[in-house]
Design goal:
heterotrimer, A: 239 residues, mainly alpha, Four Helix Bundle (Hemerythrin (Met), subunit A), 0% strand, C: 470 residues, 2 domains, 4-stranded antiparallel β-sheet
Amino acid sequence: MHPDLSVRIRNGIIVTSMGIFGIICTAFLGIFYAPGVDPMAWNSPEAQRIFYWHVPFAWSSFLAFCMLFVGALSWYRNRSEWGWRWVSTGSDLGLLFGAGVVTSGPIWGSVEWGVPWDWGDLRLNTFALLTGVALFLVLSRRSQPDGQETRDTLAAIGLFGFALVPITAVATTLYQKRHPGIVVVDGEGTGLDPVMRAVLMFGTLSFMVLFVGLSMLSDSVLRLEDTAEQAKRRLDEVN
Amino acid sequence: MSGTTELIMAYGIMSAIIVFYVNHLRSRIVFLSSKISEFSTSVEEE
Amino acid sequence: MTQGALLKASDLSVTRGARPVLDNLDIQINQEDILCLIGENGSGKTTLIESLIGILPINTGQIKWLSGDGNSVIVRDHLGARRKPFPFGLTLQSDGICGEEKVRERLESALKVNGLNLKQNEIMSFLDEWGLSHRSEDRVSQLSAGLRRRLAVLSGMAPVLFCETPRIVFLDEPTEGLDLFSRDLLKSWIGELSANGNAVVMASHDEDLISCSTRILRVEDGKISETKNTTQISELKERKLFVDTSSDSIRSFFLWGVSIERRNPVDTIGKATPAILALLLSYSIVGRTNISNSELELFSALILAPAFISAIVSPAMIRRLNEEDCGKWWSATCGPQFRPATSLLASSIILPIPLTYLSWFVLEGMITGDVNQNAIYWLWLPSIVIMDISCASTALHMLVSDLRRSSAAAASLLLVVLVWPFIQVVDALSMILDNGMTWELSTSSPLVSLLFASVISAMVWAVAIFIPDA
C-alpha cells in the first residue's frame, strides 16, 4: 500500500476515535448530567434526552448531503475523481445519520406525541425522503458497474436530494405541525437551558469530529478500491 | 410514562448504526489491503 | 476407449416462424467426437445446437440422448414433448451469463448443475488456469468482453472436462472475442475433452478450430454434409476427475436467483416502492373522508391494493434472465421445469403478507363503525391468494418477455385478466371484515371466493407457462 494512504488511514482512525469518545461523553452527559425537562409540560421527560444525539445526527446528515452536493457539482463540472469520492462518501454518511434520525425520532415521538409519525408534517416527510434518496444512492453504487453514465445518473439524483435540505431545515419555521421548532437559536418562542445547550453544543462538535473521521476513512476505502482495480487491470493484461 | 425504555432503545439503535458502519469500514480496509498486496505479488511474479 | 453414441437425432426438421431452417437431418454424436458445424451466417448452426439441447421445438423427428450406462432419454419429439437431457456443458453465442453474477459463483453454478460439488480451492485453480482468479469476486458486468467470453467458455467446458462420466459439450462461436492465450487454451481443452471420451460440438468460423475437429459438418439450405478430418492427439495434462452426484439443476437455479437478489435487491425494492406509494396515496385520500363500515368493499380494496400492485409489477428476474441469453442457458440446463420454476422464483412471495398487514395498521383507524375484531388474524389468507396472483402475473410477464419491442403493451393488456381474481379476494376480505372468518362452503363464504380466485390464477398461470413450450 502507498505510504500516503497508510498515513490517511491512520489519521482517519485517530479522528474517528476522538469523535467516538466525544459522542460517548455526550451520551453520558445528556443522560446523567443535563437537567431534565418539566415533567408537567412533557409527556415523557426522560425520553427528551434522546435529543442530545438525535439533533446532532440530523445536522450531520445535512452536512453529508452538502458534501454530496459539492461532490456532484465538481463531478459534473470537471469529472473530478475527488468529486465522485465526495458523492460516494456523502451518500454513505447521509444514509448512516439519516437512518439514525428516522429511527430515534419515531421512538421518541411514540411516547411524547403518542404517534410515531405524522404523515402531514412536512419536515418529517422530507427528511424521510432525504434518507430514502441516500439509501437509493448507496444501493445503486453497490449494484451498478462503475462508469461515466452511472456516475452522471447518481450525481444527478444526489443533487435532487440536496434540494430537499433547505426545505427540510426551514420547514419547521414555515410549516411546523408536530415536530418542534428550532430550540438552539435564541428567539421568540425558542430557548434552552444553558446547561442543556452546552451539552448539545458539545454533542454537535463531537459528531462533527466523528463525521470528519468517518469521511477520511470512507475516502481511504474508495482510494483503496481504485488501487485494487488498477492492480486487477494490470493482471488482466499480464494474463 | 417517563420514557426511560425508549431512551435506552433510541441510544442503542443509534450506537448500533455507528458501530456497524465503523466495522464495515474496518473490514473493507483490511480486505482491500490484503487483496492489493496479493495482486502486487502476482504482477511481480508474472 | 469405446466410441459409444451420446446423442442421436433422426429425421430432424426445425422451422423458425414460417422459415424452414433444418430439413430431415440425421446426426449421431459419439464419444471422442470433435464435431464442428460450419456454414454461412444464418445457415442454421445455432438453430441446430439449440435444437439438440432441447430448447427449440422441432417439427419432425426426435432427439435422443444416451448415457454411457445404457440409459436414454428422448429430449424432444415432433409431438411437442420435452424432457431434461443428461448433464452437459454449454457455451452460448451470447455468453449466457447475467451481469450480476460473480465470476466464481458462475463457475460454481455451472459445475453444480452437472452434479459436481467441488471445493473452493479446486474452483480457484480452474479460474487461475484461465487467468481469471484475480477477478473471482468481481461481478461479470465489471469484466471486459474478452474476460466475459473466457468465463463463458470455461463454464461450458469445465463441468465436462473434470467429470468421470462421458458427456457432450456444446460451444457456439467459442473463439469470438478471445485473445491468443485463451484460444490456445481452448484448443488444448477441446483435445483433452475428446481424449477423455467426451464429445465436443461447436459452431465456428475459426479456421484453427475447424482444423482441430475430427468431423466437419457443413450446414447449407437446411441440409448437412460431412467431412472427416484427422487431427493430432493432444498431450494430456494430468487431471483429477470427479465423480458426479445427481444434479439438481432446479435447486441450483433457485439458489442462484436468491443469491443474486440478496446481493442486489432491486426486485424487492422495485415491487415494494409502488406498493408503498399506493398505500400513502390511500392514506391521504381516506384521511380526508373516513370510510363507513357500509363501504367495506372499498376498504378491503384499499387494504389489499399495495400487495396486489407488488404482485403485478414486472419482476427484475425476467430482465436478468433476458440479459445475454442467461435464461436460455438455464432453460437448456433445467429442461421443461425451467418455466414453472422461474414463475415461482420471480414472484412476489415475501411481500404480500407484510404489505397487507402494513396497510391494515395504517388504514384501520380510518374506518368508522365496527368491523370484526378477529379480521386481523385472517389477513394472511387473502395475502396467500395474492401470492397465487403474483405467480400468474410473473407467468404472463414471461410469456411476453421474448417480444422485445412490444412487450410492455402486450403485458399490460394481459394483466387485466388478473383484476378478476383480485375482485374475488376483495369480496372475501370484506366478508371477513363484516362477519368474521367462516369455513362453510357456500357462494357467500369468503373461503369459496378465495378458492375461486386461486383457481382463476392457477389457470392463467398454467396457460402462460405450458403453451409456449407446446
